[in-house]
Amino acid sequence: MTAWHETQRFQRKLRRFAAEADPAHHAAHSELFRRYAEYTLIPEEIFCDNLALMRQRLRDLDGTVVECGTWKGGMAAAMLQVGGPERSYHFYDSFAGLPQATPTDGEDAMSWQADTEHPWYYDNLRTDADSFRKLIASFPGDRVHIHEGWFSDTVPHYDGGPIAVLRLDGDWYDSTMVCLEHLYRHVQADGIIILDDYDAWDGCSRAVHDFLSRTGSTARIRRFGPTGVALIHKVDD
Ligand SMILES: C[S@@+](CC[C@H](N)C(=O)[O-])C[C@H]1O[C@@H](n2cnc3c(N)ncnc32)[C@H](O)[C@@H]1O
């Protein structure tokens, strides 16, 4: 393939993600944000871009939706609304907050976690699984699986079939890495991995780069929507 063909192929791939967000759904996504705002840490525009991206992928794919790092479940609840009752969902969280950040997670992560008076500290993101269960109680129980505990204990036992959307929101290096190591291979062709913390925390971007490099992957980090949601589209390998 010539460099020209390669460029065309690359631009086609980029266009796919740029063009397919349906503006008609924006109001519905904003409404979901308002409904779940107190249960999510994600700002409205990013929240809506996540939902637009998921809606676009889930139109074509009937695989499972997975979120690692739910906190109070605001994004998870909205994902259930967008993905509908016909598919399976797996949600993972310690509900005991974040593990200790390490130097690999970066100076910002360590100082954020040390500053317990920080307005966004939120008790180190400790929450409880029962209120999450209550939030999503109206969804068919047999399709929704909540895995409480550390990712290293729960994620390796994933048995939910091909994944259409894998949303990684665990902030730190080890948390991101364990999910990539055990779930990446379950993401179906044309499925996506959303990297919530790719821009926010050094540990997340390091884990993504280390994982792709270690596995010899040719995957690129793609961007979606006005807020530039970072993702991997599983056609790149
Ligand atoms: C930023 S919050 C998730 C935000 C959420 N998706 C939302 O809608 O706002 C990160 C979550 O990841 C969880 N988490 C991070 N590392 C973890 C690990 N190794 N095992 C289990 N849970 C983890 C934390 O408990 C926390 O609730």
Automatic annotation (TrEMBL):
Family annotation (InterPro entries): SAM-dependent_MTases_sf (IPR029063), TylF_MeTrfase (IPR008884)
Pfam family membership, one: TylF
SUPFAM superfamilies to which the protein is assigned, alphabetical: S-adenosyl-L-methionine-dependent methyltransferases
Lineage of the organism: Bacteria, Bacillati, Actinomycetota, Actinomycetes, Kitasatosporales
Name of protein: Macrocin O-methyltransferase
